[in-house]
Amino acid sequence: xxxxxxxxxxxxxxxxxxxxxxxxxxxxxxxxxxxxxxxxxxxxxxxxxxxxxxxxxxxxxxxxxxxxxxxxxxxxxxxxxxxxxxxxxxxxxxxxxxxxxxxxxxxxxxxxxxxxxxxxxxxxxxxxxxxxxxxxxxxxxxxxxxxxxxxxxxxxxxxxxxxxxxxxxxxxxxxxxxxxxxxxxxxxxxxxxxxxxxxxxxxxxxxxxxxxxxxxxxxxxxxxxxxxxxxxxxxxxxxxxxxxxxxxxxxxxxxx
Length: 256
Fold this sequence. Notes:
Blueprint: E1 26-32, H1 39-53, E2 57-64, H2 70-80, E3 84-89, H3 94-104, E4 109-112, H4 120-132, E5 137-141, E6 148-149, H5 153-170, E7 181-184, H6 185-194, H7 202-212, E8 217-221, E9 223-224, H8 234-255
Parallel strand pairs: 1-2, 1-4, 2-3, 5-8, 6-9
Antiparallel strand pairs: 4-7, 5-7
């Protein structure tokens, strides 16, 4: 896949946020929190798989509030591999870390991934859709027809309930907002900057704002096989999620 296959692509010198003269085709943004057990192996595996795509890339680790050796391991990976970078935010906050990572991303295509997923089939299909020009964002849906979600039943039900709430309260037209997504940085970095809710609900706001701003958002089914149990218990997350959904409804239905 060459640049010529994407006629609307703005891949020009100095296009990166940091003012650098060249940009990678893909930036992978991965929030990480207390991931010392799988961080190194996951990043090394992802690097090898990204090489097979035949496109330039960078992996940006968005560390947020870890209390184990995650920061140290991020630094070691960065020092050893030029295509791996990292930064830290000062609290355990997935949404804040993901948003900052998107704003720092230099790639023409930004892929939001999870350290325990790394589904390269999603990368290939999403990049194909973006290069074809029929979408500016591709969302990997865990509940769309054809998806395979191997998570425990309780978490699968929680996903359905959560997205049903988003459709009822915010007129969301999709089936999923969390998990993997890919998009054109030039068209959606501004959308990310306008998001105001953080933590678990940031990813939802990003997708819903893109949809409401009439960006072409498409979903593709994905296969979800996690490498480890979630680092934060789902039950503990519920009160925070409900508060942030309430805030999101207020922001998007009252203030917008």
